[in-house]
Design goal:
The chain has a 6-stranded antiparallel beta sheet with strand order 5-4-6-1-8-9. It is of the alpha+beta class. The chain has helices spanning 47-53, 65-68, 70-74, 87-91, and strands spanning 2-6, 12-15, 20-23, 26-32, 37-43, 78-83, 95-100, 106-110, 113-118, 124-128. The longest helix has 7 residues, at 47-53. It has one domain: Jelly Rolls, CATH 2.60.120. The chain is elongated, with a radius of gyration of 16 Å. It is 15% helix and 40% strand.
Length: 136
Amino acid sequence: MSALRVAWFGGLISIGACVITTSLNGVWIVSNEQKNINITGQVPGSMYTALINNNVIQDPYYRDNDLKYRWIGRDDWMYSRVFNVTSEMMRMTNVKLVSEGLDTFATVMINGHLVGETDNMFLQYVMDIKPYIKSL
């Protein structure tokens, strides 16, 4: 199993010349060290939807909640999850992480290794992750 730790993720893993695609959409752990928050969140989604769905905040558009919740956009957020890597994937020449919709500034790590950084939410990022994944 490989732990995928990212600031935000909304894409797929796409692997090899003969392509195997594994979706990483679904339930992730959303955490914020500054406020000691550890909750679940859906991808695709955002920290706002995760906070609302876990009853941490109320509607950010109600009354003056936009002012009350400004800290959310100013803090650092981590999305993490564990995903399975099959032996078939490990036999592939290339294993790529294809990310779409990452937050503007994000750091992508797998098993403690930096695999990429982003600076534009509207780009697709393709990162080589083969050196950092492990088979079951």
